[in-house]
Amino acid sequence: MCYNCGCQVSDDDMGKGPLRKGGGSLVESDFDHMAKAWNMTVEDTKKEVYKMLKKQLEK
């Protein structure tokens, strides 16, 4: 999960399940899933998510 808990283990859902399967943890495989669904690279997907998060945090 670790994109949202802070442990920095990007592929551990901490027993809460990945978001793409209805769980509460954002994991690396969620980015893989999003990238594939949008025909994007994982890197580009992360860059777009980063841009949006940065914009939201600057408010």
Characterize the structure shown.
- The chain is mainly α.
- It has one domain.
- Helices cover 44% and strands 0% of the residues.
- The protein has 2 helices and no strands.
- The protein has helices at 28-37, 42-57.
- Helix 1 (28-37) crosses helix 2 (42-57).
- It is globular and about 30 Å long.
- The model has no long low-confidence stretch (mean pLDDT 93).
Task: Summarize it.
With 59 residues, the protein is an all-alpha fold. The chain has helices at residues 28-37, 42-57.
Number of strands: 0
Report mean pLDDT, rounded to a whole number.
93
> What summary fits the major beta sheet?
none
Termini gap = 26 Å
Low-confidence stretches: none
Label the structural class.
mainly alpha
Share of helical residues:
40-55%
Number of domains: 1
Question: What is the assembly state of the chains in this entry?
Answer: single chain
Form type: globular
- Over all CA atoms, what is the radius of gyration? 12 Å
Q: Write down the secondary-structure element order.
A: HH
Q: Into which percentage range does the β-strand content fall?
A: under 5%
Count of separate DSSP helical elements:
2
List keywords for this structure.
single chain, 59 residues, 2 helices, 44% helix, globular
Q: Would you spell out the secondary-structure blueprint of this structure?
A:
Layout: H1 28-37, H2 42-57
